[in-house]
Amino acid sequence: MLKRITQISVMMLMIVISSASADVLWDQSDYDVASAGFFNAISGAPPFGMTVYSVSHITVDGAGWDVDAISVYFSALDPAWGDGITQGSLHIFDKTSTLPVDGVDDPVLSITVPMSGVFDSDHIRVTASGLGLSLDPGEYWIGITPEAVSGPFGPEVHLPSQTYIGDATASYDPNAFPGPPAWNNMNPGVDAAMMIEGSAVLENVLWNQSDYDAFSAGFFNAISGAPPFGMTVYSVSHITVDGTGWDIDTITAYFSALDAAWGDGITQGSLHVFDKIGSLPIDGTDDPAVSVLVSMSGSLNGDHIKVVATGLNLVLDPGEYWIGITPEAVSGPFGPEVHLPSLTLIGDATASYDPNAFPGPPAWYNMNPGVDAAMLIQGTLVPGPTPTPDPTPTQTPPPDVPATGPVGLTVLILALGLLVAKRK
Questions:
Q1: How many CA atoms lie within 13 A of 278 on its CB side?
Q2: Distance of alpha carbon 323 from its chain centroid, rounded?
Q3: What is the pLDDT of residues 1-19, one digit of tens each?
Q4: What was the pLDDT predicted at 202?
């Protein structure tokens, strides 16, 4: 049985694009235009056409994926070939062997979804977007096959990836002669170029403002030296710790990606945790410059960089706090990257602190009033106290009531015998 797969509005004719973009979940987009690829198009049947389907071995990790878009990369002998693509087949099969199962995993019966093709320099990118697919963790065969005319050179070729992961891409020709059709490795030991975008299903989420906005004003939040050759600003957000308290393992902050390599050099940064008393942290008391240093890492994810501090083991009692992380990072050619804003505001807005403010003295302020920085906190709830059971009362018989049972009867008979003997 296919693992849990939910499809929402795959037949939609309009794709609504929000300002928050998807993460890259699977990246084999490093196509190779000079090597043998794969036939992968619905273009009729011989003698005047050709239809072949292709799928790749994909591992869904973590707690699962919410897939928004799948892109595949084709040759561009005819640059206009992609212009006529409006739909195609989406294939998703459970992976149980080195090839999909003949007679079970039938790509001819796969669902039809909207697609588009765009020429880009030396290739054509075919994309199925707005998929709304939820996949459980596991191994799958996944692919898309566009409906497209053959063109003057026949159908374009699905380009190979330069990387090989798991089992090689599998192909299926429903018109194979002499038949019957069967899954095969058209190009053994090679994968087709493909990218999958969406979001990972989050685990142990305590606070979620990860809905970043890549196109609005954000926050300076990096330790990158001091003027005139650098810039250091700290930012913290209003966080409410509920329940019986939190045991925080990971904090993630979302930054712009003008310099895609900016996050590569991040190895540590400051972790800020202050009790919240007013609408801003307290000047002179809540000093981010003396916050504890913790390990951090930065990684490019599509249109943004994730900065993550993990393994924190930070236990907090219930209450109101100012919490944030500030990475140590070089400014880069465009200055330090910007901590992206969240689409949601919860409580008081994110507060900022510039230790080199001129003319000074430095003070907490709202760099972006009415806006929160995008942040995710993961961990577990602190267990509550274990209730103590009421003690069970001990049942003690009244002292004047003789014990019952064989022993008690024996004692009673002996006493009566003694009383009779005395009277005689």
A1: 8
A2: 22
A3: 344 333 333 222 222 223 3
A4: 86
In terms of residue numbers, what domain contains 351? 205-381
d(CA 333, CA 258): 9
Please report where in the chains the tokens 């994926």 appear, as a residue. Answer: 65
- 150 and 243 assigned to the same domain: no
Bridge partners of 294? 269
DSSP notation for 29-83: --B-TTS--EE-EEE--TTT-EEEEEEEEEEE-TT-EEEEEEEEEE--SSTTGGG
How is residue 378 written in tokens? Answer: 């993961």
Tell me, yes or no, whether 72 and 173 share the same domain: yes
- Whether residues 346 and 233 share a domain: the answer is yes
Omega within 30 of 0 (cis) for the link into 178:
yes
pLDDT of res. 384: 78
Question: Is 194 strand, coil or helix?
Answer: strand
Residue (of 239, 310, 333, 338) closest to 281 by Cα position: 239
Round to whole Å and give the CA distance between 242 and 19: 30
Residue whose token pair is 């490019």:
300
Which residues are CB-neighbours of 310 under 8 A, at least 6 positions away? 249, 250, 295
- Total domains in the chain come to 2
Q: Which pLDDT value is given to residue 229?
A: 75
Q: Are 170 and 298 within one domain?
A: no
Give the C-alpha separation, 86 to 83, whole Å: 8
Ranges under pLDDT 70 in the chain: 1-21, 151-153, 332-334, 386-424
**Please, how many CA atoms are within 13 Å of residue 65, restricted to the half-sphere of its CB?**
23
Q: What is the pLDDT of residues 36-81, one digit of tens each?
A: 999 999 998 777 788 999 999 999 998 899 999 999 999 999 999 9
Q: Is 111:87 a contact under the CB 8 Å cutoff? A: no
Cα–Cα–Cα angle for 403, 405, 408, rounded to 5 degrees = 50
Residues 187 and 295 in one domain: no
